Amino acid sequence: MERELLETFEAAKKAADAAAGEDDSPEADRCLDALRRLRDIRVNTDVLVATQVGKRLRHLTKHPHSGIQAVATDLFGYWKKVVLEETGKKNGSSENERSSDSSGKIEKARPVKIERNSSSSSMKVERSSDSSGKIEKARPVKIERNSSSASMKVEKRDVDVKGQRPDSVKIEKATSNGSKAQPVKVERVSKEVSRTPDTKKTASVPTGPPKLTSLVKCNDATRDKIRELLAEAFSKVPAETSNDDRDEVRSILDQVNACDPFRVAVTVESALFEKLGRSTGAQKAKYRSIMFNLRADNNTDFRRRVLIGQVRPERLPDIPPEEMASDARKQENKQIKAKAMFDCERGGAPKATTDQFKCGRCGQRKTTYYQLQTRSADEPMTTFVTCVNCNNHWKFC
């Protein structure tokens, strides 16, 4: 069947290639006849997969000849339907088998009782199960054996089907030989271990990648030198944090110790190189400013913020100088700004009021003035006049 299918398809494809661009031709008729013969051949999924004619037929569904295109599309849909039906049957049968296996019930054995009595021994075995097939607990099993020479008793407590061990197992044996009696008693009690779901072991989960043991080099002498300087600066942060006088700084000592100075140094240098280029280029001044503030002995706060991630390395190329200052320097700058603002709001020196000057804008003579020596000493002073009515300003010598 595979050979017939391939030969017929090759004939159809060859005729379709010859009939390209012609509406009515003998090649087109031969192609249509071959496609109809393919429609009559009984195929299955294995044959279609082995011959791969389904993939090759897709090209004929876009043939310029309308008749070939219609017949090829119909044949393609027929083969697709065959594959889907066989796949659905296989899936349905497998699901039925699984459902039958899952729904099947195994009947449990009914209670069996065996009793055996004799002059020398006595034995009794009991076994029971529910008809529904669900056993919650097994019933006690007792075996008693009595004879003139020995006495043995085995008692087994209830056992839960969840696999827990019995609460206790006791074995008592007494042997009598004439007047001598050797009692033997073995007792084993298993302790039940109770596990509460709320109790969990606190495992130390690493918050990040492991620390680097050495500095990562990039085979560039200049960049490697910057990385060494940064690593040296960041390595001093734990000692500086532990010796700091501020309680809020010492409280984050564990967070500082968890940071990796080598990894942070490499990250900072890479961010600077990516944004600013080489340190010897046009951004040399920016490089020097950042490196100076990170390595300064009186600026421990800035490099600590960079190490613990409060200042991201990506922000360093664009960070303003005010943010690179230490906490003490920031407080000083704040006081300087407050003092300057107070001086501005307090106002300047009082100005003299006169009516000798006439405003050229409003024509009023209510003015104030003051004088400054803006030129050389042998030149007259410059007079600055302000109109009180319209706030017009002018000056003259």
UniProtKB/TrEMBL annotation:
Protein name as it appears in the record: Transcription elongation factor
Chief location of this protein within or outside the cell: nucleus
All copies of domain TFIIS-type, residue ranges: 355-395
Function statement: Necessary for efficient RNA polymerase II transcription elongation past template-encoded arresting sites.
Record carries keyword Cell wall biogenesis/degradation: no
Coiled coil: none
Entry keyword Coiled coil: no
PROSITE patterns: TFIIS_CENTRAL, TFIIS_N, ZF_TFIIS_1, ZF_TFIIS_2
Gene3D superfamilies in alphabetical order: 2.20.25.10, Conserved domain common to transcription factors TFIIS, elongin A, CRSP70, Transcription elongation factor S-II, central domain
Superkingdom classification of source: Eukaryota
Source organism of this protein record: Panicum virgatum
Alphabetical list of InterPro entries matching this protein: TF_IIS-typ, TFIIS/CRSP70_N_sub, TFIIS/LEDGF_dom_sf, TFIIS_cen_dom, TFIIS_cen_dom_sf, TFIIS_N, TFSII, Znf_TFIIS
Keywords, sorted A to Z: DNA-binding, Metal-binding, Nucleus, Transcription, Transcription regulation, Zinc, Zinc-finger
Single GO MF descriptor: DNA binding
Family: Belongs to the TFS-II family.
GO biological process: transcription elongation by RNA polymerase II
